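dumping this here before i forget
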Amino acid sequence: MASEQSSGAARQWGATGGLFAWTVAWLVTLAVARFGPELVWSENAVAGWIAVGANLTVGVGWIIAFRRYLRSIDELQRKIQQDALGITLGIGWTVGFASFVAADAGLLLGGGLDVAVFTAGLGLVYLLAVGIGMVRYR
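structure:
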């Protein structure tokens, strides 16, 4: 029994480390794709498309790593994560599409929702939902 628990813990740590590595890699490729044209290759379209392709490829690896992570955690943690993901997705779609509609109707000053603010907001919603789930299922 103890060896099963230690092997499960080792698997979870491995999946968590893998998820962390893929997350960092995705953030780095995103930064390269975003800032590369301005700072490194001076508007070279081929280099820009290569950077975007690398970001998409690493993004697929990130998704696979997240699936592995979800499979490695216990059922309660998985439920908390899935609830948080569902809440974040629902809020993201609702607020995102409401913003697009309001911007198209000319109701928003400044042209609409800032992508950086929206992304940071979704990150905060996810973290808050995980925290609430952990307290709720204590």
